[in-house]
Design a protein that fits this description.
Number of strands: 44
Largest sheet: 7 strands, antiparallel
Number of helices: 63
Distance between the termini: 107 Å
Structural class: alpha+beta
Strand order of the largest sheet: 25-24-23-22-28-27-26
Length: 1887
Amino acid sequence: MARLADYFVLVAFGPHPRGSGEGQGHILQRFPEKDWEDNPFPQGIELFCQPSGWQLCPERNPPTFFVAVLTDINSERHYCACLTFWEPAEPTQEVVCAEDATEREEEADEGGPAQLSPATPGPPGQLFAPKTLVLVSRLDHAEVFRNSLGLIYTIHVEGLNVGLENVIGNLLTCIIPLAGGSQLDSVEDGVRTISLGAGDRQVIQTPLADSLPISRCSVALLFRQLGITNVLSLFCAALTEHKVLFLSRSYQRLSDACRGLLALLFPLRYSFTYVPILPAQLLEVLSTPTPFIIGVNAAFQAETQELLDVIVADLDGGTVTVPECVHIPPLPEPLQSQTHSVLSMVLDPELELADLAFPPPSTNASSLKMQDKELRAVFLRLFAQLLQGYRWCLHMVRIHPEPVIRFHKAAFLGQRGLVEDDFLMKVLEGMAFAGFVSERGVPYRATDLFDELVAHEVARMRADENHPQRVLRHVKELAEQLYKNENPYPAVAMHKVQRPGEASHLRRVPRPFPRLDDGMVQWIVDQATAKMQGAPPAVKAERRTTVPSGPPMTAILERSGGLHGNSARRLEVVRNCISYVFEGKMLEAKKLLPAVLRALKGRAARRCLTQELHLHVQQNRAVLDHQQFDFVVRMMNCCLQDCTSLDEHGIAAALLPLVTAFCRKLSPGVTQFAYSCVQEHVVWSTPQFWEAMFYGDVQTHIRALYLEPAEDGDHVQVGELSAREDERSALDVASEQRRLWPTLSREKQQELVQKEESTVFSQAIHYANRMSYLLLPLDSSKSRLLRERAGLGDLESASNSLVTSSMAGSVAESYDTESGFEDAETCDVAGAVVRFINRFVDKVCTESGVTSDHLKGLHVMVPDIVQMHIETLEAVHRESKRLPPIQKPKLLRPRLLPDEECVLDGLRVYLLPDGREGGAGGTGGGPALLPAEGAVFLTTYRVIFTGMPTDPLVGEQVVVRSFPVAALTKEKRISVQTPVDQLLQDGLQLRSCTFQLLKMAFDEEVGSDSAELFRKQLHKLRYPPDIRETFAFTLGSAHTPGRPPRTTKDKGPSLRTLSRNIVKNAKKTLGRQYVTRKKYNPPSWEHRGQPPPEDQEDEISVLEELEPSTLTPSSALKPSDRMTMSSLVERACCRDYQRLGLGTLSSSLSRAKSEPFRISPVNRMYAICRSYPGLLIVPQSVQDNALQRVSRCYRQNRFPVVCWRSGRSRAVLLRSGGLHGKGVVGLFKAQNAPSPGQSQADSGSLEQEKYLQAVVSSMPRYADASGRNTLSGFSSAHVGSHVPSPRARVTTLSNPMAASASRWTAPRGKLGSVRASGRSGGLGADVGSRLAGRDMLGPPQANGAPPDPGFLRPQRAALYIIGDKAQLKGVRPDPLQQWELVPIEVFEARQVKASFKKLLKACVPGCPFPEPSPVSFLRSLEDSEWLIQIHKLLQVSVLVVELLDSGSSVLVSLEDGWDITTQVVSLVQLLSDPFYRTLEGFRLLVEKEWLSFGHRFSHRGAHTLAGQGSGFTPVFLQFLDCVHQVHLQFPMEFEFSPFYLKFLGYHHASRRFRTFLLDSDYERIELGLLYEEKGERRGAQACRSVWEYMDRLSKRTPVFYNYMYAPEDTEVLRPYSNVSNLKVWDFYTEETLAEGPPYDWELAQGPPEPPEEERPDGGAPQSRRRVVWPCYDSRPRAQPDAISRLLEELQRLEAELGRPAERWKDTWDRVKAAQRLEGRPDGRGTPSSLLASSVPHHRRSLGVYLQEGPVGSTLSLSLDSDQSSGSTASSSRQAARRSTSTLYSQFQTAESENRSYEGTLYKKGAFMKPWKARWFVLDKTKHQLRYYDHRVDTECKGVIDLAEVEAVAPGTPTLGAPKTVDEKAFFDDVPSAQQWVDQIQSCLSDA
């Protein structure tokens, strides 16, 4: 709250003391008598009441009113409202003394009541004296003052019966609210109605924001008086600190004009002399040298004539006179013209319509008040455009105790592109802008309209530039806001104030204005004051917020760069040159240098240079060789020579850290830095540059000071935190700190202030050093030059700050004399530099509040710093004169991954050629890239060699060879000759399982201890003591993965505690040998909402003492169990089981009957088997408590569980570990024993038998066979419905031939089981096809002997157990048994390891072969036996696939169940189920079979110190190789590309991701890894899972996608497995020396190729040729396949068009869909060309061919039993003729009308596609054969034009017979087939 009026003063005319003709004002009375404490009485009011002087007047003038403005010493403005009226004066008044006058007045006061008489003119010669009522206030409510003083005058004139004392007392005690209506709670707070006690009422409206000026109509009046151009000149003059003088005869006009001009300057505040009405006595003020805005009565115009530098605005005449010597800089274009046109639209809206032939009816113009606001809005927009982005150039130098803010003027001008602009330069240097920065720079304060505008509306203003109507709309919106600010509540603005009658001043007032009763007024004032003291002090509540920064700035006018417009091409030249310099390619760099120096004339290229150089600085230091140093210095000098002293583009600022970073070694202990060679530039001697740099760095450090503590204290997810903190600018940080400041304790405040002060102080020391570097010349003889350099001579004048240097001069002088330099010349240079630095230090430290002690300390340090530096330079100068010859090439730094860190820096080595010819330029051609000279680096993730070939003819190609540390398999020391000087050196040979070999010789400069350290570090990283120390774990460890996720706090126990519980329980349970028999409550799956399950009787338990079915329905699980369950359910296995329909968690009776299998959570605590997943599929009939006993019969407790079920045959695939000694073997031996008692003896094996029995009975086709489970009990129809192919026959697997032949034959008469003879040397090549009875009509030599066609097997086992032959010796299976053993010989893990070692040596030989030829490679490949193992795996897998396909289930029970079992089971699923051949499915397969079922990745990969002895066993890699072999044979069946397999092969060994670490889910839970993906939602950080990484990558690029993917839904793959059919995987042999292995995608995607310089703009394709070297370049990247190329092109075009790039997958899917639509021909099209193929394939069958003449390919149709089929004689061949179907295409008749003959036929699809049943329709009208998916299908799938069919021939044996057809479909019922042939034939002859 504030007082409306501070003082009421009555001023009257009095004689001048010196008796001159003029009088002077005398204060008769003032109230209150005492000054207010907060506001002393302003001096000189008497002068301002009558600005033209106090004079008597011969006639009675009407009363006048105006408001004068006085400014006190604190720059506070006082508004003096003056109401002057005239009273008669005695003729003697001029000579009578003042006392008499006072007495006479008192007598008049005591006279009787005033008589009101009609006005009578005074006697002739009567003079009138002025008397003035003055109201002094700090508030600007001119209307209220006018009314109040008018009321007092009215009471006096009209003689109203109201005490004047009361009125004045009320006026002085009136309290009104402060500005800031936004904080006011209600209308009452913002509007105050006052009454002065004379029946009056006035409404005072408080403006909403006190920062916005109140203009009423003053701006509009100013424009009316002077016009647009004149006001714009005055506006620019005031902003650029010129003197402005207003002339007018009206005082009110003067004050309005001044107020209006000030309102236009908002948001800047005018801080110079401001006197709207200047009294005549003070006219000499106009000669002041400082700028001003002053108003003077036009009567004194003559006195203003001699002012030479004052701009005079005559308000009455409407002119503005600018003296010749004054130049007012105009607004920068285009703002000047834009502003002018918008102003004219506001002031003269008719102008736009003046020329219209039919002007619209005139629109009502805005009221004057509204127009005033519109004009102000135009200027507000202008300032927003001028100052846009100013907050990005503020430097926060201090935050506490008070913000100290500096503005980086040069950067602002540079970024706005207005360096040359006179206007903006002057504005920024002006006092008003300095005030603006200190007031508005504050980051935490109340904001107003301007802040919003400059932050949020700039884009809109830019967009509206060329749309005048939109600009006008914006102006009107702003005007509304300004109007509302002044009149927040327009509805309540009603005044009721008495006014004197007409011509009342002419009436004779019987008495003068009375003397008032001092005591009474004082009493009223005192009472009000007392009341106010009782009330709580009203604090102005400001709503402070962080001030928005708005968008970064852009240039006001996008000026073209003229001659040096920097195209991207120029920048590319600069980049290439720098990269050549740092890669040591000096010849290339020399070629480019002239172009670079030309390009550096442009700003963008200079900036580009600094950015590129920054990339080559590590830890603030970059040591170069001499050639590189020279190049870098030349480019730096070229950059700096075009820098102005202001450095507005920040080039010198960016180079400053670089000139102290780049250096070269001149001799031991002497290093020359780049700064000694770039000193000759004006920018270094400009104090403003140093100040801006200093403040910028201080800001960075202050910001860092407040960002640090947040990291420890806060428990926010740190990843997000750091990301947020990077975004927070210094202003944001400062704002936050200012907000918290009042809440801090006194000590904390002190501590922060101290920290900031020492930060500034340390930076000052740092800058003193930097300045000495750049100001002291290398050679002291250059001192003369330095002195002459601009700046050092007259530094006093060159400072852009407002604070003067306090003690710089004197102190610098005194220190200089003491510095004690001997050499006079040096002393001279040093003295100048010391003085310069001291002046700088003084200034910045004073401004940023450094304590005086610290400042003195700095002054003492500076001379020492300078002296030390001079001494250093002497040595450098001496050494630089005798530079040594050129040295070895520079070490090239490798590119690292984001979290990869260098452990050992480059050791200089030579990379020697190994046995591979590629790099050495052998038979494959290409250059000899090896040997190469470079360095080896060891990082936390990889071993990397980077270097260049020693052969000078090769050119400057970078050679990179690297591999993950984790992939190292062998390291051995070697002794080799170095390629260059042929010395015998120590070397090292490193071989990795990713097929890389580093054969290195250490350079002589690398000591043996360095080499030894390298080996030790390598060993330490390869075999860390704990898995947690591998790269995958340390990666992103800054993000503290151990912290429990916050997201899951309230949802039961956190996943971390859950992991611990599981592990604890498992350990407890694993200790016991037998499970205690307690009641087991099967878990209910609560979130599925199923009823609680009931237990069934335990069917297979033979432990009779267990009471059956006394178990209660389950209650809910414990919370932690439930958590486990829900987590387990989300795992890959469970998702897959549900897809396959293998049951759910519920074991309720209702489900038991329908579902043969169930998901059992018995292992959820990993108690039964540690290496199994938590959820397992077991037969529905087996109870959980029996599983513990079953598991004891198998190795590692890995009992048989279901892992897959065939969708067609419903057969299941099971997996388990091998059997212990007893178990099944004992069971089979005991089968023929006379008494059954023996088998009871071993309850474990019985338990196991029951379990297998349960598995068999869970299979649908055996469950309902009434006890007899052999096939003989089924009718043929029954078999037909259940068994896919009754033609299948099973052979007994015995082998009478030699083991080497290794073939499967079919002994007749044995209807027994699959039996293996003891001599069997392994599976025959065609085991799969033979066992399932496929008729292989291929060449018999290739795939084994043809079977005996007469052999048919009538019965089939329900379950085959694939077991290890050694384990099942001497077993005699019973023919009636439902399961049978297939003993096979398999290799062990150690054999895999040995084989892989040999494979590595074959593919990556350490030394060249004796006779280099392909033969030697193939021989060593054969010796490795790797392909034989692949062959065996594929063979077994195909066998299992055939068995499953024929309806038998298979249990794979080999070794421990986690290596070969996993390989076979995974391959079987991949071959049988198309889902696993998709990207998602393959991931699921690996997660399920390899990760969840516990393949021991860490053990097999020797990930830790413990596994070092066991070595690397690539079981998973072998599986990937098998998949690759299948991929080669069936390229269209896989959604993923071969690169996908290589990527997995590389990263399963690289330890970059956590996916393939540890040996089982149990161990992953123990480390808290298993659920981390779901638990922790991290911010952007490195992917920990390989799947997540591949997902992200495949969204961006199709690198993992196979474009040939065109799957058949039911396709079961049966690959050839002979060694002759297998190919060596190119993953083992390919290499890319240009960039290293391509599997770390971020590193492989280097610069785009071909390089820029080989791409002429829009040149023809042939000019884009480049040489692609084998083994050096990556061919897929140099020459991508056509589809990838098109997709890239598409993305590039979209980017050029500015459209958001579409995901490549969406594009590809759209193209495929469109292709499908095109592939449906309506008339003449020949679908056979799309859909048929005569390429031979594995499967053969008989059928009918429709042979089409013109096309030459065939559409093979097999006949279905629906129409019955057979082989028929061919009909006569028809001549080819033109299609007649075109005749009918115009008739749109219904298809049904033209169905001459129809039925089901089998149709062979496209290349490698199976047969499919289709409904064929012969249409004789249109001469077509159409086919549909189904009989009821309306949409035709394809049309065969019979005009193109030559003949219908009898079918020779066709390919891939359909499986679900009866025998007779192919062999009898000739008539039906004949019928089809006849129908088609007749149609052909009709045509």
